[in-house]
Amino acid sequence: MPASALFxxxxxxDAYPAAARxxxxxxxxxxxxxxxxTVFAHRPGPALxxxxxxxxxxxxxxxxxxxxxxxxxxxxxxxxxxxRNGKEVRLPAGLAPDLTVDHSDHS
Length: 107
Ligand code: SF4
Description:
Layout: E1 7-9, E2 15-17, H1 36-39, H2 44-54, H3 60-67, H4 69-72, E3 76-78, E4 81-84, E5 87-88
Antiparallel strand pairs: 1-2, 3-4, 4-5
């Protein structure tokens, strides 16, 4: 294996041994493993499992910043909210996740 394959050079020029690379934030997504039908749902009912995951997601803020729903005209769940064409969908009472607790460790 070439030595260059063992290192990752960051934008700051730092080199990490491959085993010490910082994990991608998506590694920590609480919705990882959920089906696309819920993560990219258009309606509140099918989106519920993803919305519940958002409530305990440690990368909620990073998700919202990266997806930038309004700018990307996003359809689906991001940052604990459901979006359609980049606009937040109003959720029926009882379906909105409790986003008052910040679980971020990896944002
Ligand atoms: S905030 Fe929600 S949609 Fe975004 S990564 Fe976390 S669980 Fe998934």
